[in-house]
Design goal:
There is one protein chain. By secondary structure, the protein is mainly alpha-helical. The chain has a domain of 84 residues. It has 4 helices and 4 strands; from the N terminus they run ααββαββα. It has a two-stranded antiparallel sheet with strand order 1-2. β1 and β2 form a beta hairpin. The protein is elongated, with a radius of gyration of 26 Å.
């Protein structure tokens, strides 16, 4: 009788532990957070960051390796936090420039729509925008 109580008690504890762990979510590890964001919001979600990066890909007709450096030690993939590729800093400067232009000139509502410029305004799917020479 006494052994049955011990076994029942232990089984109850094990069941309780399993039930609690099944309904408890693990905290998000900080390692999953984007690192080295200097222009984009540090509070940006992974999904929103991916959306922004895909927008850059489409606007410039490039892939991730255009701005991001490859991982060190011959590993596959990109080291997204690295600043080794100088084009990443150029991209940051372009984002700042676009934000400044939009704030100063285009952050107004016209006919119910907010007009602004974006990467594709000048790049049109090309890594380097075409420069139009002034005829002055």
């Amino acid at each position: 009788m006494r052994n049955k109580r011990k076994i029942s008690f232990i089984a109850g504890i094990i069941t309780l532990v399993i039930a609690i762990s099944a309904f408890t979510t693990q905290p998000v590890q900080e390692d999953n957070k984007p690192k080295n964001l200097k222009v984009l919001s540090k509070k940006i979600s992974d999904e929103e960051l991916t959306k922004v990066m895909r927008g850059f890909n489409a606007a410039l007709g490039v892939k991730c390796g255009y701005c991001h450096a490859p991982k060190a030690n011959g590993e596959k993939g990109m080291d997204f936090a690295s600043d080794a590729n100088p084009k990443k800093d150029i991209a940051r400067q372009m984002i700042k420039m676009t934000n400044k232009i939009n704030k100063k000139y285009f952050n107004k509502e016209y006919d119910g729509a907010i007009k602004n410029i974006a990467c594709e305004t000048c790049h049109n799917g090309a890594a380097s925008p075409k420069v139009i020479q002034s005829t002055k």
